[in-house]
Amino acid sequence: xxxxxxxxxxxxxxxxxxxxxxxxxxxxxxxxxxxxxxxxxxxxxxxxxxxxxxxxxxxxxxxxxxxxxxxxxxxxxxxxxxxxxxxxxxxxxxxxxxxxxxxxxxxxxxxxxxxxxxxxxxxxxxxxxxxxxxxxxxx
Length: 139
Hints:
The chain is mainly α. 79% of the residues lie in helices and 0% in strands. The chain contains 6 helices and no strands. The chain has helices at residues 2-17, 21-33, 41-58, 60-91, 93-118, 131-135. Helix 1 (2-17) runs parallel beside helix 3 and helix 4 crosses helix 5 (93-118). It comes from Dicaeum eximium. Residues 1-116 form the U3 small nucleolar RNA-associated protein 20 C-terminal domain.
């Protein structure tokens, strides 16, 4: 998709690409600023190359305006999601408590995995799955 965006940008040219600049920059910006663990470095490099191509194509001033608007939109979305999450913890404390328990459980599992990778002889205690007990209908 990034290669397609780059090809379309070059094909449209400087004047016809300007109205679509923010639309093209949005996924590129998202890929550049993502920090998830399984990130592909080739995608990051490709998005950086296409951003440089767009910068040369439309000029620094137009590019800067479009890029800053994309940044602003992303920050607003992030702030809105954070605000909604905070409001949800107040409005639905049971859902928030479940989420917190799940996060703590995942944190403990991650810690155990990390210890096992550092010390292979050590086997951390795992939570036993009571599959039959979970399937039973308890009233």
